[in-house]
Amino acid sequence: MNRRDYLLRRLGLSVVTILVVFVINFLLFRVLPGDPIRSVIGRNIRISAETQQALREQFGLDKPIFPDQLLDTFGQWVRGNLGISWSLRRPVSEVLMSKLWNTVILIGLGQILAIFLGVILGLLAGWKRKTAIDVGALTFSLVAWAIPTFWLGIILLAAGSTWFGFPTAGIVSPANTGKPLITVLPDLAHHLFLPTLTLTILYLGEYMLIMRSSILEVLSEDYILTAKAKGLSDWQVLWRHALRNALLPIVTLIALNLGFTVAGAIYIETVFSYDGLGKLFQTALTKQDYPLLQGAFILLAVSVIIANLAADLLYTVLDPRVKES
Amino acid sequence: MSDRWVLFMRNLRNFWRIFSHNKLGMLGAFLVFSAIFVAVFAPLLTPYAPTDTIRDANGRGMTFAPPSVHGPLGTDDAGRDIWSQLVYGARISLTVGFLAGFMAMFVGSLFGIMSGYFSGRVDNVLMRITDILLVIPDLPLMLILVATIRQMDLRISPTSVLIVVIGLLYWTSTARLIRSQVLTIKERQFVDRARAFGAGDWYIIRKHILPQIMPLIVANTVLILSTAILIESGLAFLGLGDPTKPSWGTMLNFAFDRNAVTNGAWWFYLPPGLAIVWVTLGCVLLGNVLEELLNPRLTEHHLEGDQNMIAIKRNGAE
Amino acid sequence: MSMQPLLSVRHLTTEFQLANNQVARALENVSFDVRPGQTLGLVGESGCGKTTTLMSVMRLLPASGRITEGNIYFKGTDLLTLSEREMRTFRWKEIAIIFQGSMNALNPVMKVGDQIREAILMHNPVEREAAEERVGELLELVGIQRQRGEQYPFQYSGGMRQRAMIAMALACSPALLFADEPTTALDVMIQAQVLELLKQIQRNLGLTIVLVTHDLGVIAEMCDEVVVMYGGKVAEYGTADLIYNQPQHPYTQRLLKAFPDLNRATESAESAGQDLVTIPGSPPRLNALPPGCRFNPRCEESMEICTQIAPDLVDMAAAGADARHLAACHLLKRMKIEDQ
20 to 30 A from A243, CA-CA: which of A144, A236, A250, B126? Predict the structure, then answer.
């Protein structure tokens, strides 16, 4: 079956991509000057030569790089052992998991809102071309695209905190730290508002543009004329025939956007001091905590790759025509 | 030789005739060129150097001073004039953006041409590389690349690192675009004829294919420029720029780190961002208009125009 | 014995607004009748306005199209006076259309059966089972197995898709069927099949058909009356018999010479050995129409008056004959006057 071949090919590509990520990750930290052990334990700790040697043996750094260290490391990563973060003194995987949901909530909320609003606006803009709503939507998207993510965050942060009393940092207020998020929803919502607003505004534009051009293309297809000739009203034509075809590129876009989404998370979480994976990545970068940095990179990259694969799968389900890519 | 020049000039004139009537395109061009102007003539536009501290009557540095007669955009946390930083920063932002953009365009065009023209294995390999690059999230990758390169003591300026990293990661969309264009052109007869004459591949590419895709490359480059400028500002904001040669992104990094927000110094964090939007918007408008002129798209769809379909004038009644 | 015509188009004039404020006159003063049970052929070169005529009647012109003059009487009602909503009740239920068999005339992500069912339910709200049954009947009517209604258009061959479109067009038992180049995109073998199907349906269901094509062979096989169009105007209009055997308009004559028809009823000795004759020149650009008769730049018999005044339709029928035969040509007018 053609669908199966297509998916197998995408699966193969995904595996290769993950391998590439692993290789990049592995090599990058081996090219740093100085003793590789420093990447693992940090630069500021003083240790004796014997301890250094012992640690080297423990971490397998005295073995040859190819293939021993490479395969060892890959094996570790696949098993979920991402090393120890020396700045936080905890296993990397543990640190990542503790921050993961915060980011997922933020990004998830922003994306869902952006998709919902973007699709509706795009539909209206394409259907009623050259009217006020179309021109307005286009202008908005254009400008939104040109605005740097973090800058919009800064502006909203300044305006929001000064004029509306929104908090400027954190996921919850200090008083509520450590409590399960379900129990402090209002506080969480209060903290989520500005960052989510920023993300939504920025993603909205792109979804609107894609939906608009998608709908324009679909509405000029022959079968739309056939539908109209059958006596359907404009709205019926849109709803029953145009929408499903026009939405297909959106699915692909969501997948393609995931990389962009991750970037957004890094910027927004930094600006709003929101304690998620993005801020973690930024902190690890500044502190040069390489195990943490590597682990975070793997997590982010693999998540995006898997999500892309899932989108491919979804697409084949939605479009009965998918044969060769 | 001169024939080709005459033809080229005529095409250029025709193009200008259409383009000058396009308001958005002209706006885009204005935005971009005014920014270039500011960057080039920076020293003429401000009496201060970006590192000068502005002092008040008593010789004390005026920190976080709002816009005034001394500095139209106020001062930063160390009393330096924001306007000066802005105009000098234009040089950095635009240079990095343009160089990175051109690099991406060059690599992308090269790969696109090779992929489209040679097909087969070359095409396969290049397209797989493109697929892989597209999936890996770009910002984390760039961050670790830049961080690693900087640690390597290679004596490359931070700015150059940024240029190279951006240029090496953003060629994929250009490559795809050029590739599909080349595929279309390759189908045309004159390519086969040229080959029958024994023309070499690179000759064909240079003489036949390149002129045809050049306008598309130009339009695409402008759009890539906008991306490059945005990315540079982002990386600089995260601290990966050169603090001694601040770009607009670096200015925003300073603003954020030095509490301009909490101090209410809007003149510190607003202007650099506005400058970025100014140039990026200009590039996007220009690029979109260019692309539209080169690849005009469909004009109408089936659910339009019902109201005007019957235009019969019957003795006054519609 | 002439009944009230089912469709009566009078002085239809349609324009298209072009980009630089120019106007293209796609149709000018087009008039013809279609009697119940008849098949009328609209024939001419590409761009002569055949499709635009159909689209004007159904009011499905593209956004730049404007009907500026005329009346379109269907069963007595002038369709051009109806609101859009009222017009929708006529579409498919009274007048259905088959488009040129492009890959995309049917929605590619919707099952064929579902699309036919939609047509049924649009105008006859019945139970789902009843509709399903009808879908099956229709498919069988055009020679497609019922089960294939569960498939998607891309799983059909070109000929099958066309037949599916015919099935869908018949869903509401319309009084009038428009067929826009129904065989053009198909292989010769399949063309014959589809035509045979149309003839069969017309016989069995008593349909009235307006057939648009540039293929004179198709016209010869199926049509009772023929409208020959050129440059948006009617050049000649009459029964198929008269058009084929006594073509009056220079354009019609050229057209017939360019189509060696193997099955022509009257095979004259001279035409048997003739080469294919093409008509030199190309059809006029609708935004830059030549003054006077639109065919005059390519007409061998063009006279002075042809470049100045557009000719009206002249009745060429023999006196007292029941059959209709009109042609718009100054030469014919002159000849007719001389005859009298």
Answer: A144
